[in-house]
Amino acid sequence: MAAEAKTHELIVSVSPHVRGKETVARIMWTVNLSLIPAVIMSIYYFGPLAAYVTGLCILTAVLSEHIYQKALNKENTIGDGSAFLTGLLLGLNLPPSVPFYIPLIGSFVAIIITKLLFGGLGYNVFNPALIGRAFLLISFPKLMTIWSEPTAQFVAMDAKTTATPLGILKEEGLVKLMEVFGDKSELYTSLLTGNTAGSLGETSVIALLIGAAILFYKRYITWHIPIPFLATVAVMGWAFGGESGWFTGDPVIHLLSGGLILGVFFMATDYVTCPTVRKGQIIFGIGCGAITMLIRLKGGFPEGVMFAILLMNCFAPLIDRQFKPVMFGVVKEKKEQEK
Amino acid sequence: MGKIATFERGIHPEYHKELTSNKPVTEAKLPQRIVIPLSQHIGAPCKAEVTIGDEVKKGQVVGVTTSFVSSPVHASISGKVIAVADFPNPSGKMVTSIVIESDGNDEAVTFNGNDKYMDLGPDDFRQLIKDAGIVGLGGAAFPTNVKLSPPKEKPIDTVIINGAECEPYLTADHRLMVERPSELVDGLKILMKTLGVSNGYIGIEENKPDAVEAVRSAVSGESNIEVYPLEIKYPQGAEKMLIKAIKGREVPSKGLPMDVGVVVQNAGTAIAVYEAVRYGKPLIERVVTITGKGIQEPKNMLVRIGTLMSDIIEQCGGLVDSAVKVISGGPMMGFAQWTLDVPVIKGTSGILVMTEDEYVASDEYSACIRCGSCIDICPMGLNPSMLSILSEKGFFEETREYNLFDCFECGSCAYVCPSKRPMVQFMRLAKSQIKP
Q1: Cβ contacts (< 8 Å) between A120 and chain B: which residues?
Q2: Last residue of a domain, one of B252, B279, B306
Q3: Which of A262, A335, B60, B99 is the most exposed, having the fewest neighbouring CB atoms within 10 Å of its CB?
């Protein structure tokens, strides 16, 4: 009887003995893929420079992680796609005409300081790409706010510099914005397609929504952060964004402009740095939206998405402590007690 | 009827039931030698009633106990006791067991049948069920007569037969429901009379339409028994999930089904109850699904308790060359075996053999990326992500705050985890370090 067993080395492990197909690498690479439309639009509007800046970010991010892990004799994780994603997101968050050292410094700060020194993927408190960008914005405020006009001609080298729609709105008001774009429908169209000045990947709302749709379809993101985030921005934009008193603002401008769509669907939803409990995510989304609008309307910067998400990142662990999932057998108990 | 009942959350693993779902139950060969562990159930282990050299008959009691939460064990063949010693058990532990060598005659003690059994009272039923050594055949092996003896302050109004069989691969209950539906219904009626309740339900996952149909026709005319098709979802067959699906009641945290007036029994158990009460037959055999890509001929077999797995596997054509893992039970909650010389016990619902290419390493995992997938699917509404992190870092006391002890280790969180974290292991580690 025992002879049968001897020919087979049996493996013993804890249940379950089957696993789902989802892996971290699969999720990360899918997010990378879902950003391809935005990359294409950035190259279309801002020329080869866009590919150069984004590529440099990705290259530095992946190399930084590789060298760090090699030097410290740690397991190599560049294959999981998260360093690639950080580089890609940072690239899409930079102005088109930055000098070569900006992507290098940004990716280094994002990967080494924000992610790896905190323990690697899963342990970082802040969104790495956003810290990279925040570091750059504070350290190189001039370079980080030179916005080129979208040319859509594949020759961006001599593109004129201009201001972003949010910049115009902040400094010169709605009237000037209308002057630049003609009328509202033209403004909306430009914002949707991405034919405005801004960071490489943030301008084309349509391209970003295609990517977001992929993430929703794959159920990698849910409505719990994006919708409250967008709703808060819309409500506050309408209530407080007007120049002729309360409830006269244009929520659509606020929804479509700046880094909002990129931030809402691709950065605020970053698993590691947002709350895990769905109820908490709603609070997180509302918080992000409120801080974004506070900065846009009252702060020193025309755009506030980045700082809003980073600030809310700090609160993610606290929110998680406060909101626990509804446990089986508990709701009923309470209801019965009330009777 | 026609409604599809279910619970919240849960997962959809690949079921692979087609390997055996259409294969009628066949009787396994009379084993040469059986190993009867003295503890096959939750509760106090039995004491051996026989010693080396004793001649025993099929159905003879070989181990008893006076504890309430316990269940006697019986010889499943006739022959001679050749050893009483510690032998490996499917749960991975060494358990004192009685080894009996067959005399080839398969001679049985007289079973006291009773064709007017429905005239008996609840206490007679309980005694017959206890004497027959019946325990929950779904896997947990809780003594059935204990479940049928709820304290006075817990009135029971419902009995549910669990025919969900939500573990992938397993089809033992499925075949029983298709082949012996009237015995199942008679078993349910005995259980209902024992508990004095008038509402009986049979919950069956929708992926067994032939079982639903067979059981439905067996209950036609019984106005107080209802057949519920259940959504195909794991862990639909967990007691608490099943009660939620069928009765909409939630067993309170740390509570038992009887707290909401329900007793759940597995489909196979109900048939064993019927056999015990009607024919006086003790629990000496059970249906086991032998399945997986690693076995030559997957089958459903009626196996004597105590038959060694190696024996059964041989009758299924043996293992394929690439077989690497043999699991007692199903893939979600079953136990991996280190040797095939372990007996089929009362709680063994399946023998699943997995091959190299299906094998998932549980030693390679990465940090939790806090994706929240486990929270979305945890049938108990826990935060497995946080529990696993706390356990991993040694913060065992803190796991109480996250209701560690409500986890029943269904493994759904480990199934969905993209970081492939050994979630169940983390839960067990924490549970072993603190008291409930």
Answers
A1: 367
A2: B279
A3: A335
Amino acid at B33: R
SS3 content of chain B, % helix, strand, coil (to 5): 30, 25, 50
Three-state secondary structure readout of B85-122? EEEECCCCCEEEEEEEEECCCCCECCCCCCCCHHHCCH
- For residue A271, the chain B residues in CB contact (below 8 A) are 369-372
Provide the pLDDT confidence category of residue A2 given band limits of 50, 70 and 90. very low
Whether B424 is covered by a domain: the verdict is yes
pLDDT of residue B1: 41
> In the predicted model, is pLDDT for residue B353 greater than 50?
yes
* The predicted structure's pLDDT at residue B3: 57
CATH code for the domain in which residue A147 is found: 1.10.3430
Main-chain dihedrals φ then ψ at residue B301, nearest 5 degrees: -130, 145
Which residues in B lie closer than 8 A to residue A30 (C-beta atoms)?
none
What domain count does chain B have? 2
The minimum CA-CA distance between A315 and chain B, rounded to whole Å, is: 15
How many domains, in total, are found in chain A? 1
What is this model's ipTM? 0.89
Out of B385, B420, B425, the one facing A14 most closely (by C-beta) is: B425
Range(s) of the domain holding residue B184: 115-279
Whether B313 and chain A come into contact, CB under 8 Å, resolves to: yes
Most B CBs within 10 Å, among A9, A18, A123, to test the B interface: A18
User: Model-level pTM greater than 0.95?
Assistant: no
Give the mutation candidate from B7, B250, B295 for the A interface (greatest A CB count, under 10 A): B250
Q: Sign of torsion, CA B262 B268 B271 B277?
A: negative
Q: Helix H segments across B98-196?
A: 122-131, 144-147, 172-179, 181-195
Q: Cβ(A260)–Cβ(A233) under 8 Å?
A: yes
